[in-house]
Design brief:
alpha/beta; Nucleotidyltransferase, domain 5; 10 helices
């Protein structure tokens, strides 16, 4: 089966905030600040509810019989509808095993709301066995099925107090962790017009997720130590061949330059 590791980056959906809060005459920055303030009053923090996020980047690692691929969906100027449609179209075409870090708690619910917002059809993703019996006991939607593997969820034993941050889990295993940005800086980068930096950051996150997943595959006996090393060499070769600065920086931080 193809394996697709994914990660998303988001910013406040200021179009929603403008309509919901009646702020038609305000610019995006002022609307976002009003959304943050409302959230702080409601919950004590400014992390917006998932339906108030807008997707600006989706990065993927795909492992198939043809090899290993790393990319970010669309182009820097692609709109959200195109990014979300491309993500679900890939599931429609390949029915991959999905792997994420906190995908059940963040990435996928956000993508659900945005697909609903843009009228994206995702038949394969929502299959639960009515049309394909193979999905009855292993689909993308059930928390305890493995067609979507949320590494954070599984490694924590499905306990919130056991959850770890991706960058900390990566560093624990000798991988680079955060390179360049962090999630709380994405909105600032977006306002500054630095979408390329956001896309690069998203790719390093998805690389960390893939590397942690490989170690998890070793732990559960699905890869031998030799097979793991082959996969790690494949990642390193991909980054060297690609040659983009953020990937070479990742490679250097990993100690495989």
């Amino acid at each position: 089966m193809n394996t697709l590791v994914f990660d998303i980056e988001t910013v406040p959906d200021t179009d929603f905030g403008r309509r919901y809060l009646g702020l038609e005459d305000l610019a995006d920055e002022a609307v976002a600040q009003a959304m943050f303030q409302r959230r702080r009053e409601q919950s004590g923090n400014d992390f917006l509810p998932l339906h108030q996020h807008r997707v600006v980047a989706i990065s993927c690692v795909m492992r198939s019989r043809e090899g290993l691929k790393l990319w970010t969906l669309g182009d820097p100027d692609s709109d959200e509808a195109e990014l979300v449609a491309r993500f679900f179209d890939g599931i429609e075409r390949f029915s991959p095993e999905l792997v994420s870090w906190n995908g059940s708690g963040f990435d996928l619910p956000v993508l659900h709301y945005r697909a609903l917002r843009h009228g994206v059809v995702a038949t394969r993703y929502w299959e639960t066995g009515d049309a394909d019996r193979d999905f009855r006991y292993n689909n993308y939607l059930s928390r305890f099925h493995w067609r979507h593997l949320d590494l954070m969820d599984v490694l924590s034993g499905f306990q919130f107090r056991g959850a770890a941050r991706l960058d900390e889990a990566a560093v624990l295993l000798g991988f680079p962790g955060k390179i360049g940005l962090s999630g709380d800086r994405v909105w600032d980068e977006w306002r500054a017009g630095r979408i390329d930096a956001i896309r690069d950051y998203c790719e390093t996150d998805v690389l960390n997720t893939w590397l942690v997943f490989l170690r998890f595959e070793l732990m559960r006996g699905r890869r031998s130590p030799a097979e793991l090393e082959q996969e790690l060499d494949l990642v390193a070769a991909l980054l060297r061949e690609d040659g983009r600065p953020h990937l070479l920086e990742f490679l250097a931080a990993w100690g495989r330059a």
